Amino acid sequence: MAKAIGCETAAIKAVVMIEASPNQPAFDILNRPQILYERHILKKMTHSRFDAIAPDISGPVRGPGEYGGYNKQYERLNAAMKLDYDAALKATSWGAFQILGENFRHAGYGSVSDFVRAMGDINKQADVFVKFNLSNNKMRRALINKDWATFASVYNGPTYYRYNYDRRIKANYEKLS
Question: Per residue, what are the HEC states of the chain?
Answer without folding.
Answer: CHHHHCCCHHHHHHHHHHHCCCCCCCECCCCCECEEECHHHHHHHCCCCCCCCCCCCCCCCCCCCCCCCHHHHHHHHHHHHHHCHHHHHHCEEECCCCEEHHHCCCCCCCCHHHHHHHCCCHHHHHHHHHHHHHCCHHHHHHHHHCCHHHHHHHHHCCCHHHHCHHHHHHHHHHHHC
